[in-house]
Design a protein that fits this description.
mainly alpha
Length: 60
Amino acid sequence: MSRDQSPDRAKREANKVFKPVETQKPVNDYARDQHSFNENRERLKAERLAREAKPESGSE
């Protein structure tokens, strides 16, 4: 029986450690717009940094 119980226990322990993250939904249109704006800004910033980090291949 201990063999059957150990996977269950391990699963319970893993569920305690890796709880799903609950995100809050924006309350109103303004908050939703701000959230979208911030996500888009962060995405664009990451893309720009990635482009700048690439070595330029002297195409002159």
